């Protein structure tokens, strides 16, 4: 066995007296792909931030390329060949691809001026190493998220990185984009680059990792070559719960028709979507990112004005035009991007939960504090939200607890229809399970659910029916019994015309 | 860090939160105390009832508008027009009043109506035409100032006797104007703490997209807050009339920056979503006492500006340290 490129030995770190990492050891051979998995709060990010030089370990050694590293600034770490690609991409949207790749290290002419020729040529070179065609002159703001991620990877390569950490790269990607990322990882691996791949999604780990390390509560539970693991074992290692329990089943009956959308279109990509939703069912919406799934959710909720068509609840007057009317009609939307659309991150749990129902909790415009308190404490108990107090700012909650706060907020509006856009994104397996269970409980109470998701196992495991979107239209509809990943991908990637069976 | 679950976090998190929320406040009031001590030891007149009443009144003049400004800033907006609106308000009220007691009520109503109108126009431009508050109110600053100076470049109109008397009236040792400000401080605290409108202000400033998707009437909230802010300026114009006795077009300049300064010193975030009424009160008092003290100590006016600037930078720099 060759010498490892990186060895982290007995790393411990605590924050304010709480042990985040306890004697964690982790080693990488050059040119392999390492999966780092574990629930939120398991310590994955902390470990990687120590590697990156963002945090300093309380104890333990880092040996990189045979040299012990005492402490290093983030800049020194990058210079030594370690690059970390965070989920929140660190690009300047107003600058071009090439300018971003070489930001702060721009090639210069002998006069000290920007050498644009070399800037673009070298960027081209890096991108072609990744096997992607991207105009180095286009602005980052005009790129898709997936393309932006490629720019980040190219940037890492430009810094001569031979160890790249990817922190949940798939959380912002869908379908074919993910395949592209995997191709790139394979290409990098072939070039001798070591990859540490952090993910919640086990399928991905099985597709690309050579070795998997499982962290739980700040300790390494196990570290094994992928060949010695299967899904069941891995899930059990991560959460101590087996896979069959992930998608809770109930044998509820489909209820009456609840919501009707007829040929709705908006100024966005959405172009004539009709759907029927029944009480107590989960209608899954699948499709690529950009296929109009999120736009459909916004249109149903009145967040984007309709240019044609209508949405209404059965037995009620015409549709609503604004979110506040939709809420009053009994429709709720849990948006895709929790941090920018779902939560007031700098505000308290209390206001986050009660904001849509303040008028119900108040008299003559004055909020009745006692009722507000009760709503928050009920919600906390019902969804078992872990927080220090109702005044805690939601940015300090874990992803799963943040999502529970968003769910709690919408459940308080007593909706008849809930639209969930990527309900389990950035949420660990344990919290995922709780959210699935909650969805089933809502079904049992007759609440109709529309669930948009990029995770096909989730779509197939949870939905009663599945609508597949493509290019702003419904490409097809599948019943749970007929649904499998291939059929869905086929519909999502084929033009709607061939598959117009809805 | 999500890794920091459990009960041990509670103590540290709670303490950090308390400091983060109240650190600026504690510092502002500590600084005020320091100024009072300096004043008391360096000048015999500083602690005289007469001087303290003056400080209280002057603080009220700035403070009432600062409260309006704070609410606007809480929604991640800004109102640069308040100074010019004070100017137009004192002119309009003086002209309408024209020294007659019978005209007091019409003058007050006309001035308040002007405030409502300006606030509605701001709300319209920001809500419906989606122009940034900075731009809208900058234009408004210039336009209102132009209107004011068109009305008159020398003092016009006249306050009635009762209105002039109002300036010196006291309840016990406390000037009525200062009392008025104090009541508004309390009302603003109650507004933010207990009313739906108050929570909507926080929500709009916290994240306007989330607020919209949560059913908060974003437009109505914005109309409301700009009207309130303009009303505080109109009221302050009336108070200035009571003090000056005539419609003096020199009044009002620079109030917008002073109010923003007071609000920032008080720890309210310019990015919205977080405001502190007590902080703003502290900021107002700090500015008022500093100005008063510097005059007492015979420091030149130009140096006063410099010192105010240093206070702003020092205050904000200290909050940053606390916040991290």
* Beta strands of chain B, count: 2
Order of the strands making up the biggest sheet of chain A: 6-7-8-3-9-10
Q: Could you tell me the mean pLDDT of chain B?
A: 89
* Parts with pLDDT < 50 across at least 5 consecutive residues of chain B: 1-12
CATH topology of the largest domain in chain A: Rossmann fold
The number of distinct structural domains of chain A comes to 2
What CATH first level of the largest domain in chain A would be assigned?
A: Alpha Beta
> Which class do the helix and strand fractions of chain B yield?
mainly alpha
Between the first and last Cα atoms of chain B, what is the distance in angstroms?
14 Å
Structural class of chain A: alpha/beta
Taken from the alpha-carbon principal axes, the silhouette of chain A is: globular
What is the helix fraction of residues of chain A, given as a range? Answer: 25-40%
Largest sheet of chain B: 2 strands, antiparallel
Question: How would you sum up this structure, described in words?
Answer:
The complex is a heterodimer of chains A (502) and B (324). Chain A folds into 2 domains: 6-244, 3-Layer(aba) Sandwich (Rossmann fold); 257-493, P-loop containing nucleotide triphosphate hydrolases (Rossmann fold), CATH 3.40.50.300. Chain A has 17 helices and 21 strands. Chain A has helices spanning 44-52, 74-79, 97-101, 116-129, 145-158, 175-190, 202-208, 231-239, 293-300, 323-329, 338-342, 349-354, 369-382, 399-411, 429-444, 456-462, 485-493; strands at residues 6-15, 18-28, 33-37, 59-64, 67-69, 82-85, 163-167, 194-198, 211-216, 219-225, 257-266, 271-278, 282-286, 306-313, 331-334, 362-363, 366-367, 417-421, 448-452, 465-470, 473-479. Chain B is mainly alpha-helical and 324 residues long. Chain B has a domain at 46-252 and 270-275. Helices cover 76% and strands 1% of the residues of chain B. Chain B contains 13 helices and 2 strands, in the order ααααααββααααααα. A two-stranded antiparallel sheet of chain B has the order 1-2. In chain B, a hairpin with a 2-residue loop joins strand 1 (170-171) and strand 2. In chain B, helix 3 runs parallel beside helix 5 (133-151). Chain B starts with 7 loop residues before the first helix and ends with a helix. The model of chain B is unreliable at 1-12 (pLDDT under 50). The interface between A and B is large, with 54 and 34 residues.
């Amino acid at each position: 066995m060759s010498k490892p490129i990186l060895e982290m030995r007995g790393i411990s770190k605590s924050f304010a007296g709480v042990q985040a990492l306890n004697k964690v050891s982790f080693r990488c051979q050059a040119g392999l792909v390492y999966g780092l998995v574990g629930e939120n709060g398991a310590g994955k990010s902390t470990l990687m931030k120590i590697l990156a030089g963002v945090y300093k370990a309380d104890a333990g050694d880092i040996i990189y390329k045979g040299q012990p590293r005492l402490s290093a600034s983030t800049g020194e770490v990058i210079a030594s060949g370690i690059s970390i690609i965070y989920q929140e991409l660190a690009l300047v949207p107003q600058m071009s691809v090439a300018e971003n790749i070489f930001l702060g290290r721009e090639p210069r002419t002998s006069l000290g001026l920007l050498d644009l020729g070399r800037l673009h040529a070298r960027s081209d070179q890096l991108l072609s190493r990744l096997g992607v065609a991207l105009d180095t002159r286009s602005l980052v703001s005009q790129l898709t998220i997936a393309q932006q991620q490629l720019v980040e990877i190219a940037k890492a390569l430009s810094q001569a990185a031979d160890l790249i950490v990817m922190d949940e790269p798939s959380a912002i990607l869908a379908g074919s984009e993910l395949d592209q990322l995997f191709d790139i990882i394979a290409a990098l691996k072939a070039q001798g680059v070591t990859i540490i791949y952090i993910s919640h999604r086990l399928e991905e780990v099985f597709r690309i990792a050579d070795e998997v390390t499982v962290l739980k509560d700040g300790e390494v539970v196990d570290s094994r070559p992928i060949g010695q693991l299967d899904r069941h074992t891995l899930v059990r290692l991560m959460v101590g719960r087996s896979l069959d329990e992930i998608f809770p089943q109930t044998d509820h009956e489909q209820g009456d028709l609840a919501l009707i959308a007829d040929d709705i279109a908006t100024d966005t990509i959405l172009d004539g979507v009709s759907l029927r939703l029944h009480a107590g069912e989960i209608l899954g919406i699948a499709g690529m990112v950009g296929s109009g799934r999120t736009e459909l959710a916004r249109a149903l909720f009145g967040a984007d004005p309709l240019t044609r068509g209508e949405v209404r609840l059965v037995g009620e007057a015409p549709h609503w035009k604004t979110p506040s009317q939709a809420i009053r009609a009994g429709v709720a939307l849990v948006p895709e991007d929790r941090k920018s659309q779902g939560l007031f991150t700098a505000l308290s749990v209390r206001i986050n939960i009660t904001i849509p129902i303040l008028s119900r909790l108040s008299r003559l415009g004055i909020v009745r504090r006692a009722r507000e308190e009760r709503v928050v404490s009920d919600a906390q108990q019902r969804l078992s939200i872990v927080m220090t107090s109702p005044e805690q700012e939601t940015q300090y909650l874990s992803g799963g607890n943040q999502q529970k706060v968003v769910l709690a907020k919408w459940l308080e509006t007593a909706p008849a229809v809930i639209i969930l856009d990527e309900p389990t994104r950035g949420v660990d397996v344990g919290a995922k399970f709780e959210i699935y269970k909650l969805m089933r409980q809502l079904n049992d109470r007759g609440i109709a659910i529309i669930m948009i998701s990029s995770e096909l196992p989730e779509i197939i495991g949870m939905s009663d029916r599945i609508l597949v979107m493509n290019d702003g239209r419904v490409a097809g509809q599948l019943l749970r019994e007929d649904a499998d990943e291939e059929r869905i991908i086929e519909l999502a990637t084929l033009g709607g015309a061939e598959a117009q069976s809805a | 860090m999500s890794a920091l679950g459990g009960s041990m976090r509670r103590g540290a998190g709670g303490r950090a939160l308390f400091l983060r929320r109240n650190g600026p406040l504690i510092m502002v009031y500590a600084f005020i105390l320091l100024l009072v001590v300096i004043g008391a030891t360096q000048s015999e007149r500083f602690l005289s009832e007469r001087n303290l009443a003056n400080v209280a009144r002057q603080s009220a003049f700035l403070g009432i508008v600062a409260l309006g400004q704070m609410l606007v800033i809480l929604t991640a907006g800004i109102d640069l027009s308040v100074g010019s609106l004070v100017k137009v308000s004192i002119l309009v009220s003086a002209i309408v009043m024209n020294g007659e007691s019978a005209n007091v009520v019409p003058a007050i109503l006309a001035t308040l109506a002007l405030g409502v109108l300006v606030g509605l126009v701001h709300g319209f431009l920001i809500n419906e035409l989606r122009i940034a508050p900075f731009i809208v109110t900058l234009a408004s600053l210039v336009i209102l100032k132009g209107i004011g100076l068109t009305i008159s470049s020398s003092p016009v109109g006249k306050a009635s006797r009762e209105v002039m008397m109002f300036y010196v009236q006291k309840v016990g040792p406390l000037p009525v104007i200062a009392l008025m400000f104090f009541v508004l401080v309390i009302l603003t605290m109650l507004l933010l703490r207990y009313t739906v409108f108050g929570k909507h202000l926080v929500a709009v400033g916290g994240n306007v997209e989330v607020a919209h998707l949560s059913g908060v009437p974003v437009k109505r909230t914005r109309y409301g807050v700009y009207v309130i802010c303009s009303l505080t300026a109109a009221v302050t114009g009336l108070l200035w009339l009571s003090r000056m006795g005539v419609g003096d077009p020199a009044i009002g300049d620079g109030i917008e920056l002073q109010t923003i300064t007071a609000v920032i010193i008080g720890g309210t975030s310019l990015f919205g979503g977080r405001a502190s009424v007590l902080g703003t009160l502290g900021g107002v008092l700090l500015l008022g006492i500093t100005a008063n003290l510097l005059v007492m100590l015979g420091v030149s006016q130009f140096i006063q500006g410099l010192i105010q600037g240093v206070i702003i930078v020092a205050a904000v720099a200290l909050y940053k340290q606390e916040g991290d």
